[in-house]
Amino acid sequence: MFASMIRAWMPPTLIALCGSIVAAWLLVSGRVVFGAVLLVVYLALAVAVSPLIFPRSVDSAEARRRAEEDGRPVVYWRPGCAYCMRLRVSLGRRARRAHWVNIWRDPDAAAIVREVNDGNETVPTVVLAGRPHTNPDPAWLREQLRSLV
């Protein structure tokens, strides 16, 4: 669990650190405005690739149980995945209607994703009504979530 948390936070931490170093260099060299703007951009990017923008993850067993009860999709994702981020951002507030499972925190979830993707941990993988959909079109999932109101 601890190792997966470190792995999830490594990219945003490195982005924030690199941005801070570059911004500090610019500030010291007298380019204050450019340094400040660059720092804000790097920090925003760090937040965007962090686990913070995703709804709270549950484990795979709990997500499947909830999905059976309410018919909502299970979205398997991992931090730092650009396609997961694209899906999450495009869903907006509707993202909370799905059950999100971080495959880096749940070995069973990673195994499920590998099983439906020919041994690959391809995410996002969405399971809706028992059928897996690998890297689905965000508009399609938005429509599915809209119909679950």
Automatic annotation (TrEMBL):
UniProt keyword terms in alphabetical order: Membrane, Transmembrane, Transmembrane helix
Entry's Gene Ontology molecular function annotations: electron transfer activity
Keyword Acyltransferase: no
TM helices/strands, residue ranges: 9-28, 34-54
InterPro entries recorded: Glutaredoxin, Grx-like_ET, Thioredoxin-like_sf
Signal peptide start and end residues: none
Keyword Electron transport: no
One GO BP annotation of this record: cell redox homeostasis
Domain Glutaredoxin, first and last residues per copy: 74-131
PANTHER family: GLUTAREDOXIN, GLUTAREDOXIN-LIKE PROTEIN NRDH
Record-given protein name: Glutaredoxin
Species per Swiss-Prot/TrEMBL record: Streptacidiphilus jiangxiensis
